[in-house]
Design goal:
seven-stranded parallel beta sheet; 12 helices; about 40% helix; about 10% strand; globular
């Protein structure tokens, strides 16, 4: 038995061990390592109040991030521009979907106000997917970034963008901005796209990451994120890691999929904390320089630290 086949057998045999078994539509009880205490301390509530008063949206709240308490306690949030409604309806995502509202052109100033008042040095900005806009919202990303940069020139910026339906011009608009990191999440393995990411395309997303690396400045780092527990196999994960490495991705985040509601895809498997260490090692072994993996890891979790590590590593050859 080769190594990959051995890993696949282990995944299959352990599938139900932590409550991640097979019944469709059933919400399995979370194992002990996923019972994270909810932090509603004064610092968290203060950040939540300030954000609510600012008129801004965060993916932390929209996506029900399990790290909200930890990040809000430090005054850190990942801002979500282009509104709070997504034009797609991925079956793993808690973000609201439906007919979007008009774009708020003042979001750049509002984010700059918050970052300046909190003394932030690193900021992550993402968005809902806006297939209703001609450029997918790329011009709004540009407007937002340039406004923030004009007021806070030393702030380090990371963008997590949608796929812009494969538009090279839209991608160029954001990849050429004065940012440190450009991220786009692959989310899951190729075979699960039809179930989990209708409206998205695995190869299109992969191509975006490859193009971003070549279009952006030499110092630009690219980033992607995935969740596990949707039914992927070890072999499929290894192929995904190889694809990301081939696209020159510098940073990868890997976290446990947690089902937001009964309307979303069921959890097929809860991975143990020590398994994430092995998964991270496999991703690094094919050439992904920085891998942040763990049950509660999400795309922008400890983003500044991941970027600091990636900045010290060899830059992808753009030749």
């Amino acid at each position: 038995m080769n190594g990959t086949a051995g890993r696949e057998k282990t995944l299959a045999s352990d599938a139900g061990n932590a409550g991640g078994g097979a019944a469709e539509g059933r919400i399995h009880r979370k194992p002990s390592w996923l019972r994270k205490k909810r932090n509603l301390g004064a610092d968290v509530m203060l950040t939540r109040s300030r954000l609510k008063g600012s008129g801004l949206h965060t993916v932390c709240e929209a996506a029900r991030c399990p790290n909200l308490g930890e990040c809000f306690a430090r005054g850190v949030a990942t801002f979500m521009v282009l509104g709070e409604r997504c034009t797609r309806n991925c079956r793993f995502c808690a973000v609201d979907h439906g007919e979007p509202r008009p774009v708020n052109d003042a979001e750049g100033d509002l984010i700059a106000d918050y970052a300046e008042a909190r003394g932030l040095s690193y900021l992550v900005i993402t968005s809902v997917t806006r297939d209703d806009l001609l450029d997918g919202g790329a011009s709004h990303f540009a407007r937002t970034v340039l406004r923030i940069r004009s007021r806070l020139p030393s702030l380090t910026l990371e963008l997590l963008v949608p796929d812009f339906q494969g538009s090279v011009e839209a991608l160029r608009r954001v990849a050429e901005l004065p940012i440190a990191v450009l991220g786009h999440n692959l989310e899951t393995t190729r075979s699960l796209y039809g179930v989990a990411r209708k409206g998205a395309d695995y190869d299109r997303s992969l191509k975006l990451l490859e193009r971003a690396k070549r279009i952006g400045a030499r110092e630009l780092r690219t980033k992607s994120g995935i969740m596990i527990g949707l039914g992927e196999s070890a072999r499929e994960l290894d192929r995904l890691f190889g694809d990301l490495a081939g696209a020159g991705v510098d940073i990868l985040t890997v976290g446990q999929y947690l089902r937001p509601s009964r309307d979303h895809l069921p959890v097929r498997r809860y991975y143990r904390p020590e398994e994430f260490e092995g998964i991270a090692g496999r991703a690094r072994s094919v050439g992904i320089g920085v891998v942040v993996a763990g049950p509660y890891v999400r795309s922008s979790y400890r983003a500044a630290e991941a970027y600091a590590e990636a900045r010290e590593r060899k830059i992808f050859d753009k030749g």
